[in-house]
Amino acid sequence: MAGGRRGFVRVAEEGGRTVLTAPDFLGNFYFNTFGNIAADPRAGLVFVDFDTGGVLLLTGTAEVVWDGPEVASFAGAERLLRFRLEEGRWIEDAVPLRWSAPEQASQLAATGTWAEAERAAKAEASRNTLRPFTVTRIVDESATIRSFVLEPADGGSVVAHQPGQFLPIALDIPGRDQPVRRTYTLSDAPDGHSYRISVKREAEAGNRPGLASSWLHDHIRAGDTIRALAPRGDFVLDTDSRRPVLLLSAGVGVTPMIAMLNSLIGRNPDRLRHPGRGLWFVHAARDGAEHAFAAHLRALAARAPTLTVHVRYSRPRPQDVPGRDHDDAGHIDAALLRRLLPLDDYAAKLGWTDRLLPLFIELGRYNGKLYALPKTYETLGLFYNKTLFDQNGWKPPKTIAEMETLAEAMKAKGLVPFAAGNADWRPANEHYVSLVFNAIAGPDNVYKALTGQMPWTAEPFVRSIDTLNKWWQAGYFGPNYFSLTGEQAFAQVATGQAGMAPTGTWNFSYVPTYFPANDAEPAFAGFPSADGVPSPIYALGIGSTFSIAATAQNPDGAAAVIDRVFSDDFYGQINSVWQGEWNTPLKDLSKVKMSGDVLPLYTDTMKTLAGAVAAGQYGYTTWTFLPPATDTYLVSGVEEVWLGRINTAQFLQKLDETFQQEKAQGKVPAVPAR
Amino acid sequence: MWLYLVPTLAINVAVILVPALLTIALAFFSWDGITVPVFIGLGNFEALAQDGVFWSALLNNLIWTGIFLVVPIAMGLLAAAMLLVARRGSTFFQVVYFLPVIIATAITARIWQGMIYSPVTGVFGLLQKTGLPITNPLAQPSRALFGVATVDLWHWWGFLCVIFFAALRQVPQEQIEAARLEGAKFLQMMRYVLLPAIRPTITLMMIMTVIWSFLVFDFVYILTQGGPAFSSEVLSTMAYRNAFYDLNVGQAAAVALVISLIGLIATFFYIRLQAQEYKE
């Protein structure tokens, strides 16, 4: 027995016997007393009055009440002890000790008293009696859904409901000998003095319109009285959880969702209970006319940054505008729900929009929402051996013509002009196709082709592939292109066997392995462009991307990881030990601190690259911007051109066919406008 | 008694039957592996028929089958017969011949690619320096398939040799001795005694060779990925490319179905042959 607040022992008469009842609260789970009572119900109670020294001795039988309405109505009680008195004795001055009034243990504040328990029980009982309410307001939410706001006719307050609960009402419809009882979901958050129900006029079922809903729509006017019980229902929102909330509904099923949403966002979206808690509201309706609470939802979405709304219309009317009235057409399906979590909120909250190059944020958008951000981005250019160039008086080429002259000079010296090999990675072929597409056809034409404004068979691309083939036939790629791995080929630049490597920035990771060992100084320059194309163009490729699954249990944690990767500190630390694979799309690299061992060449190149992207001087790599089958055809197809099995026109013809086919299937990645 | 069949049956249904049926079904759909498949009837097969790469891959599989029906079987038979005749050291040679079989194919392929064929790091590079006009076969469209086949041969023939040797040892010693006493030379012994005695084994191996030849994937994929310019592309690498690079799973299933069809024909002949032997 643990005691309780003053008045925790109730004294009552039952069948001529005095019965004492006391609550038992959460304790140490030893159950010593209760164990004894369970074994032998004979019990004695000792009450000491420390004011007078008197002692009351009681004997009788005890029992434990494990459950029931009495336990429930006594706040904090886990069970009750009932004691039936048989005999008692009061002894004056039995105890010499005199104590002052005891201090109440702090945990008892959470427990009740018998007086409170009685009031609670009475209130609970009144929940089950019909109480008259006055209809104070009627609002049409859609063509078929009408809201009724009810306030107690007796002027009292209302029993508070939890969002999601429903209200049982009774309607006195003429011609019915009994009140018609119905339940309607409360469609607003509790406000202490009113209820709102939203009722859909039920379509005719078996040639008869829904009785109660029709009556409400046709006959109930402001000022009328409706009787209702207290709200009830188990389908309620867990307002304490920090996990993301998905409110999913269709048609009139929207009513509890609106109540939950209003309760979450409240009347003040700036003061959310858990500000980081993600909120999704996915709703399906037939069309704009049937879409209830549309304006309310739009207003909330505009005010609450963490709320994402997606509305689908199964049969949109001509006047329903996608993007304004609804997001898209169709039913809600698994694909919609399984989609990735939009990252816009995090991008705004964690400041990614300020930190990252805007182009990459654009690239990660689908239907206007941000879903993916690059972990690393890469570009193509010319690596060369500065030591070798200085010895021969060579300069990095500024035009295609200069590069061809240089390549011939290298060949004359017995060097392979282009260090290149695809033995370990056949798709290395497309690095060279990407280079010529951007440097010779130019990024504007590539953009036109990617967006379908120009076929891949157009003249600029013919010129690009013809040039690339000319280089191949002239032996720029050396005799061992199909035998060398990419790394072996790159190493030949350091050893001086090859002149230059037109390849990707990921090769920076090989620089520390090969250049110092050969006493060679590495250098990197942009690949020269043809006349009429700005030079150099940095073709962009994205190595891998970050997204958060819509079903993630801890999206905030995932966002925190991404946020860390996009920090200056992380960029500096990882690039100090691993160059080329973690070029995160930071806008400004000036604050990044790198280890002293890292070549300034790498840091400078990455800064130049970030600057060029910010200035719009970028191009498109085939592996990031072409759809899959077009890209794989390109890889083998260009070999067929090199090996004389097909000509440029045939290659581009098949490339364009595959591309147009994939474009029609919606497989072409989104390309941000230039 | 039928209960004993349940475990194997369940595994077969789950691991073989269901995927097989799914593959057959997918061959008639257009599917990118993610969205809902769309039925397109014979569209995948029509696209295959119009694709030059499919026919060249099929031809490459046929060439491959031809090579493997002749070269490793001949080498295996010859070496096994020699082992039988020259008993001395036969265990040692068996081990040597069999060794390549137990090396993982990926390792074998990388060794040949880097240490033998490579003009930079391999034996071929060394030979080139001595002036021999020798080039990496994998880099040439006309020879790439043979370059790959050579590696597979090296890895494969020892297996056949050991199988044939085991079969030859079952040939009754009396027959061999009698032939020898009667003055049969080595070739005569092969022609009239040994080969007829192990004919069932040879037939089985030939039929299996046909099936295996159409399944070949690992060496081709590691050594050339079907290149250069599709010159060493076989049906299985084509199916792989279709499925995992082009995200065109339906097309890949159609190619897989063609492979299975050829395997089925070979299996049919094998079963018929077995039934005949059973009757005899």
Structural features, described:
The complex is a heterodimer of chains A (674) and B (280). Among the domains of chain A are: 10-100 and 113-124, Electron Transport, Fmn-binding Protein, Chain A (Pnp Oxidase, Chain A); 127-228, Elongation Factor Tu (Ef-tu), domain 3 (Beta Barrel); 245-338, Rossmann fold (3-Layer(aba) Sandwich), CATH 3.40.50.80. With 674 residues, chain A is of the alpha+beta class. Chain A is built from 23 helices and 24 strands. In chain A, strands 9-8-11-6-7-10 form a six-stranded antiparallel beta sheet, covered by helices on one side. Chain A has a five-stranded antiparallel beta sheet with strand order 1-2-5-4-3. In chain A, strands 12-13-14-15 form a four-stranded parallel beta sheet, covered by helices on one side. Chain B has 280 residues and is mostly helical. Chain B has a single domain (63-279), classed as MetI-like fold. In chain B, 75% of the residues lie in helices and 1% in strands. Chain B is built from 13 helices and two strands. Chain B has helices spanning 5-26, 43-50, 52-85, 90-102, 105-117, 123-129, 144-169, 173-181, 186-197, 199-215, 218-223, 235-245, 249-279; strands at residues 29-30, 38-39. Chain B has a two-stranded antiparallel ribbon with strand order 1-2. At the A-B interface, helix 22 of A face loops of B.
Distinctive features:
heterodimer; A: 674 residues; alpha+beta; Pnp Oxidase, Chain A; Elongation Factor Tu (Ef-tu), domain 3; elongated; B: 280 residues; mainly alpha; MetI-like fold; 13 helices; 75% helix; 1% strand
Strand order of the largest sheet of chain B: 1-2
Catalogue the unreliable spans of chain B. none
What percentage of residues of chain B falls in helices of 4 or more residues? over 70%
The assigned CATH architecture of chain B is Orthogonal Bundle
